[in-house]
Amino acid sequence: MSAKALPEAAIDVEALKPGFRCLYLQRVSQEKNQARFYLLSWQPTLFGWAVVRSYGRIGCWQRAMPPLSFDSLEQAWPLLRTIIKRRLRHGYQVMELTRV
Asked: Which residue, among 51, 37, 41, has the nearest Cα to 94 in the 3D structure?
């Protein structure tokens, strides 16, 4: 993906909550030969809503974690916030944010 990352100063995790739908993060380092992505989304299911996560090397097969079901975004937000903060701490950059 050739999109530019959002400025680090613009990343306020709590500001992502209203209307949150999908977040695409990536970490690219030529020195370490790393090109990784992490996709975190809030999707409807047959029984409510779920947090869906996929990750992998850019340009290769992606891996998906089992969806985690929640009744509302309010209930899921502590998990989403923790995941987003962890990825940012590990050097990932926000490339795309989708809201409802």
From this structure: 37
